[in-house]
């Protein structure tokens, strides 16, 4: 406990000396009861039952009973006195906390702090009870032992003193370790509290490993603190054994010696009663109560009473953390910027990559070799469920191959360097509550200049949406955006990142073919940028300068024209894809049937302009949908 907290505590108690005195007086009754715990049975035996005077024995037992009743009355009064001591402490702490909470208008902090006040109040009450009880019980028992036979003090006193001394010696180091454990526990709880609600963000940004590492460090810190605490707690158990249990053994072992020196049988039984009924439970409560609650109270009180200072320190600490965080992000960023400079290594290289979702499952990717030069534009095609997303997950480092190596711009996957060089835009675009600028600049540690934001939005076709939302400073309500609009936000965000390799995993599937084309061309034209697109339209594959056809565990790789000749699967895929009609003046709406058949419609073709009916040129596709802003569709069949 710090000197400041100690002196405040002394002042607090001195100002309430009357309550302390009242508490002491009522506690004397407890001492009386403790005295009778051993003395009455001793007299009942020696002067009563063993002397053949059962009446006297019963009378002494009756006295012990009265002692218990008086002790119980005293304990009830003690509780009232403890309340008179504890409640003012609570009031003072609450006053402090509320004053500070109101000043800062921080309701979250206020509720957290008032909860700590309750902990402080309860812990303080517990401490007053156990330490007071130990003192008065010990006095009662020692006086009782002395009255029965001073020799008994010789047997019980030394181990009791040794136990208490050992306990006192461990108090401070134990409190420090308890505090270290609490701090580590809270740090972990804080971190998990922040991470768990944001798990989607973590996955969306591919930060699992970094977060796992970070949380792992906190888990290790708490584990270390718990081990150290446990080691010191062994000494606490030793002090209990020495002070409470050893006297019992000594009394029994020394019984013949004591009896030979005039100690009566009743006195021996009385001494055992003192140790087992009073001293041991009181010491047990003291060791556990003071050992655990004492350090908890120290921590809570220090926080509550010096929170202003701590807040300042906390602020500085946060700034320091921010600064070091900034430094780390600056480092990552400069690594990423460097990645944009012309690279000698290929943008992507896979050699002998094999991956299966489970040890017993068939591999989704098997022995795949692929080299993609920097600046290339690759389309990955294949039937549904063939492994296209799995491949992007492998390249992004979200999945680990069981065999083979993957490198992104010469950096092994997974690694932070490879992570900084790629950005994955999944089909399910993620938009979070915040401003448009927050969302778009999410992959950038440096503030993105507004002109750059606008240019990126324009490049990927998000311009009209940005305007409708109210510009970069406007707040985004994710639920109010259509899936297509969310994809536009995700595309602009990825476009702004410094990662040169963009992985679009059906990231434009909710956009119309023209919006998709615009976005893909924008990514392909990023200076030094390499693009891998999981294509769901033939137009997308035709735009790419290379196509990877996935066909079970086999693959074919080449240009569109080459593959039309060599890959029957590619020919089939091209045949089943619907050609995109020439662009009309009014925006078109593209629908895709569950079987992957496209249908294209124009608003106004049927319906009221927002609700349209689309007739598919292939098969009998019929669907109606709501043409939201930005041309996206919520389809009802
Ligand atoms: N987490 C997973 N656990 C087990 N199997 C999975 C998991 N994710 C995908 N698969 C299986 O792996 C195979 C390849 O899936 P993947 O999503 O990579 O295919 P895809 O070609 O991207 O499909 P689509 O075009 O429909 O998105 C499928 O059979 C799928 O069921």
From TrEMBL:
<feature type="transmembrane region" description="Helical">
    <location>
        <begin position="124"/>
        <end position="145"/>
    </location>
</feature>
<feature type="transmembrane region" description="Helical">
    <location>
        <begin position="237"/>
        <end position="259"/>
    </location>
</feature>
<protein>
    <submittedName>
        <fullName>ATP-binding cassette domain-containing protein</fullName>
    </submittedName>
</protein>
<dbReference type="InterPro" id="IPR039421">
    <property type="entry name" value="Type_1_exporter"/>
</dbReference>
<keyword id="KW-0812">Transmembrane</keyword>
<dbReference type="GO" id="GO:0005524">
    <property type="term" value="F:ATP binding"/>
</dbReference>
<dbReference type="InterPro" id="IPR017871">
    <property type="entry name" value="ABC_transporter-like_CS"/>
</dbReference>
<feature type="transmembrane region" description="Helical">
    <location>
        <begin position="60"/>
        <end position="86"/>
    </location>
</feature>
<keyword id="KW-0067">ATP-binding</keyword>
<feature type="region of interest" description="Disordered">
    <location>
        <begin position="611"/>
        <end position="637"/>
    </location>
</feature>
<feature type="transmembrane region" description="Helical">
    <location>
        <begin position="151"/>
        <end position="171"/>
    </location>
</feature>
<feature type="region of interest" description="Disordered">
    <location>
        <begin position="310"/>
        <end position="337"/>
    </location>
</feature>
<feature type="compositionally biased region" description="Basic and acidic residues">
    <location>
        <begin position="317"/>
        <end position="336"/>
    </location>
</feature>
<dbReference type="InterPro" id="IPR011527">
    <property type="entry name" value="ABC1_TM_dom"/>
</dbReference>
<keyword id="KW-0547">Nucleotide-binding</keyword>
<dbReference type="InterPro" id="IPR027417">
    <property type="entry name" value="P-loop_NTPase"/>
</dbReference>
<keyword id="KW-1133">Transmembrane helix</keyword>
<dbReference type="InterPro" id="IPR003439">
    <property type="entry name" value="ABC_transporter-like_ATP-bd"/>
</dbReference>
<feature type="domain" description="ABC transporter">
    <location>
        <begin position="348"/>
        <end position="576"/>
    </location>
</feature>
<keyword id="KW-0472">Membrane</keyword>
<dbReference type="InterPro" id="IPR036640">
    <property type="entry name" value="ABC1_TM_sf"/>
</dbReference>
<dbReference type="InterPro" id="IPR003593">
    <property type="entry name" value="AAA+_ATPase"/>
</dbReference>
<feature type="domain" description="ABC transmembrane type-1">
    <location>
        <begin position="23"/>
        <end position="281"/>
    </location>
</feature>
<dbReference type="Pfam" id="PF00005">
    <property type="entry name" value="ABC_tran"/>
</dbReference>
<feature type="transmembrane region" description="Helical">
    <location>
        <begin position="20"/>
        <end position="40"/>
    </location>
</feature>
């Amino acid at each position: 406990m710090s000197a400041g907290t100690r002196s405040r505590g002394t002042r607090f108690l001195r100002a309430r000396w009357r309550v302390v005195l009242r508490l002491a007086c009522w506690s004397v009754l407890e001492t009386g009861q403790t005295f009778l715990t051993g003395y009455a049975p001793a007299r009942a035996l020696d002067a009563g039952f063993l002397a053949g005077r059962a009446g006297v024995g019963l009378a002494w037992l009756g006295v012990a009973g009265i002692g218990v009743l008086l002790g119980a009355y005293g304990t009830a009064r003690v509780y009232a006195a403890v309340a008179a001591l504890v409640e003012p402490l609570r009031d003072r702490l609450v006053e402090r906390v509320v004053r500070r909470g109101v000043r800062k208008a921080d309701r979250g902090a206020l509720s957290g702090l008032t909860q700590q006040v309750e902990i402080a109040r309860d812990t303080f009450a517990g401490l007053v009870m156990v330490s007071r009880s130990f003192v008065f019980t010990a006095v009662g028992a020692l006086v009782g032992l002395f009255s029965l036979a001073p020799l008994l003090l010789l047997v019980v006193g030394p181990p009791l003193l040794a136990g208490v001394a050992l306990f006192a010696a461990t108090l401070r180091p134990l409190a420090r370790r308890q505090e270290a454990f609490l701090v580590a526990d809270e740090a972990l709880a804080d971190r998990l509290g922040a991470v768990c609600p944001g798990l989607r963000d973590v996955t969306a940004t591919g930060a699992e490993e970094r977060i796992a590492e970070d949380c792992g460090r906190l888990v290790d810190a708490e584990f270390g603190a718990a081990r150290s605490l446990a080691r010191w707690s062994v000494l606490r158990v030793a002090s209990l054994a020495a002070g409470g249990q050893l006297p019992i053994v000594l009394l029994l072992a020394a019984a013949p010696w004591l009896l030979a020196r005039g100690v009566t049988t009743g006195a021996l039984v009385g001494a055992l009663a003192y140790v087992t009924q009073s001293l041991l439970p009181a010491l047990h409560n003291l060791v556990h109560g003071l050992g655990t609650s004492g350090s908890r109270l120290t921590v809570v009180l220090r926080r509550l009473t010096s929170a202003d200072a701590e807040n300042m320190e906390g602020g500085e600490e946060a700034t320091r953390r921010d600064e070091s965080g900034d430094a780390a992000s600056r480092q990552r960023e400069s690594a990423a910027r460097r990645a944009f400079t012309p690279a000698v290594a290929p943008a992507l290289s896979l050699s002998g990559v094999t991956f299966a979702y489970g040890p017993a499952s068939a591999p989704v990717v098997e022995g795949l070799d692929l080299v993609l030069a920097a600046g290339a534009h690759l389309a990955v095609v294949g039937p549904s469920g063939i492994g296209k997303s799995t491949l992007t997950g492998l390249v992004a480092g979200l999945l680990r191959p069981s065999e083979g190596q993957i490198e992104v711009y010469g950096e092994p996957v997974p690694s932070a360097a490879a992570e900084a060089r790629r950005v994955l835009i999944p089909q399910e675009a993620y938009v979070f509550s915040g401003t448009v600028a927050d969302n778009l600049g999410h992959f950038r540690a440096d503030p993105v200049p507004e002109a750059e934001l606008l240019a990126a939005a324009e490049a990927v076709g998000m311009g009209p949406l940005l305007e409708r939302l109210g510009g970069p400073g406007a707040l985004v309500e994710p639920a109010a955006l259509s899936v297509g609009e969310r994809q536009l936000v995700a595309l602009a965000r990825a476009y702004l990142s410094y990662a040169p390799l963009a992985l679009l995993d059906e990231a434009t599937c909710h956009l119309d073919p023209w919006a998709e084309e615009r976005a893909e061309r924008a990514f392909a034209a990023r200076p030094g940028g390499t693009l891998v697109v999981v294509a769901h339209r033939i137009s997308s594959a035709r735009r790419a300068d290379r196509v990877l056809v996935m066909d079970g565990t086999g693959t074919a790789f080449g240009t569109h024209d080459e593959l039309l000749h060599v890959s029957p699967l590619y020919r089939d895929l091209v045949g089943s894809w619907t050609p995109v009609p020439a662009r009309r003046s009014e925006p078109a709406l593209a629908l895709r049937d569950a079987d992957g058949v496209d249908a294209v419609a124009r608003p106004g073709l049927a319906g009221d302009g927002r609700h349209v009916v689309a007739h598919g040129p292939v098969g009998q596709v019929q669907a109606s949908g709501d043409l939201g802003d930005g041309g996206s569709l919520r389809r009802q069949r």
